[in-house]
Amino acid sequence: MAIILSVLSGVIIFVIGQFTLKVIIEPIQKQRETIADILFSLTCDYTLIHNAEVAEKEKSDVVYYNLKKLGARLLSNQQLIPFDFLNKISSLPEPSKIITASTILAQMSNFIYGDGTDGIKYLQLDLFHIQTLKLLNLNEFINIESSEEELRKQINELKTIRTKSRK
């Protein structure tokens, strides 16, 4: 009887361990990997993101699709995490911040081919960059000299100038 109980308890512990691994630990690890990939992409592809219209089309397209995929992967990985409180105890951003960061990455990908002649594009891309890193709790990796507030102010000033010049 003792052998049966030992084997049964071993099987139960194994099943609980596998359940914890598959349902809790692996989804959190996947999300962390995605956040690391986003940081890598924003850092490594910074120049291409800002100069997509003059760079090689293939390279620019890769960056464009990569930003879209990273945003989608960020969102889909969040759906794998079964409980919101796991984000807090695992140092992941809140689900609402994940959703916003995903949206910003999609906007950023759509913005990279924009017209940069009036400077708004570059400021807006920098703003997206800062916002994404802040939302993903990566503040220490922000290497853009202007703050969010300064970028917003400059964007609004340029939009005002553009609107006046069109009249």
Give the gist of this structure:
This protein has 167 residues and is mostly helical. Helix content is 77%, strand content 0%.
Describe this structure in words.
The protein has about 170 residues and is mainly alpha-helical. It has one domain. The chain is about 75% helix and about 0% strand. The protein has 7 helices and no strands. The protein is elongated and about 90 Å long. About 25% of the residues are buried.
Secondary structure topology:
Layout: H1 2-44, H2 46-50, H3 57-80, H4 85-89, H5 95-111, H6 120-135, H7 148-166
Helix pairs in contact: 1-3, 3-5, 5-6, 6-7
- Beta strand count: 0
The structure class reads mainly alpha
Helix fraction, binned, reads over 70%
Order of helix and strand elements from N to C terminus: HHHHHHH
DSSP helical segment count: 7
| C-alpha termini separation | 91 Å
Overall, the morphology is elongated
Radius of gyration: 22 Å
Percent in strands: under 5%
| pLDDT averaged over residues | 91
Low-confidence stretches: none
